[in-house]
Amino acid sequence: MNPKRYAVIVNPYGGNRRAIAIWEQVRPLFVEAGAEVVVYPTEHAGHGRELAESLDPSVTDAICVVGGDGSVHEVVNGLLAREDKAQFDLGIIPAGTGNTLHDHLGCHEPMSAAEIILRGKTHLIDVVRVTMPKECVYCVNIVGWGAVTDIARLAERLRLLGTVRYSAATLWQIARPIVRSVKLKLDDQSIEDEFQLVIACNTKKTGTGMLLAPRAEIHDGKVDLVVLRHASRWQMLQLFRSILDGSHLSLSFVENYQVSSFGIESRSCDALNLDGELMGNTPFSAEVLPQALKVFV
């Protein structure tokens, strides 16, 4: 039976700050369907997680997130951290700068995403659990280390440049590449070497449409790792140009693995990029939790 009681979590501050307007655009569809809706605007960072962790399952059938990647990340972590293990169907309506999971699931536009939710068809998807010394984080999109984190961190400092800040940060990374010595664990295999970039993808795309893992499936029990060891500036430029269409996997210096668990141990405490959020540090271990989340599709 199609759930009729929805908790709608709206992030009015994320991305382009259009989440409230987008919800007002799709709300008539819920009214027409006879759905019971309670709207929860988030008020601070982490509020989405708090709401998802505390909603009463006796009065709520499903949760809808109106926001981007960051909002979805918060709600997923709240759902999977619940002490009562209560399960809710999850719907996502794109309203952020990055809408990666939305894109993978075919929720490209707000109206079509709302129609998908109201249709009531669900599918189980994988989640990646990242375990660090002091915390555990759940990811549905990416787990990134090295250059992918360096670029995101620099882009945050260049916010005044607007959307071109990511291109500027990428060019800086190409001009001044950083190589780090780590132990990379892939299932039962360990590789000790110098690396520039490791990114594990649960979805095909990340960021603003970069096709990082064209072979990735969100329900196969595995993540796709893109690994870069030693690369020249010219090779780095080739890599960042070709990830837009996924052709980087044909480059001889790019490695690609499909695994169910992975991890990184390093001499330094390196920052991580978890679903586009700069949080956590090495060392960490990660494993795929198959079919851990039920989403509307």
From TrEMBL:
Indicate the enzyme's highest-level EC class.
Answer: transferase
| Pfam families, alphabetized | DAGK_cat (PF00781), YegS_C (PF19279)
Keywords assigned by UniProt? Answer: ATP-binding, Kinase, Nucleotide-binding, Transferase
Record EC number: 2.7.1.-
Query: Which SMART domains would you find in this protein's record?
Result: DAGKc
- InterPro entries, sorted: ATP-NAD_kinase_N, Diacylglycerol/lipid_kinase, Diacylglycerol_kinase_cat_dom, Lipid_Phosphate_FormReg, NAD/diacylglycerol_kinase_sf, YegS/DAGK_C
The secretion signal range is: none
Can you name a GO cellular component term?
membrane
Q: Which residues form the DAGKc domain?
A: 1-134
List the GO molecular function terms: ATP binding; lipid kinase activity
Which GO BP terms sit in this record? phospholipid biosynthetic process; sphingolipid metabolic process
Recorded hits in NCBIfam families, A to Z, give: YegS/Rv2252/BmrU family lipid kinase (TIGR00147)
Task: Spell out the protein name for this chain.
Answer: Lipid kinase BmrU
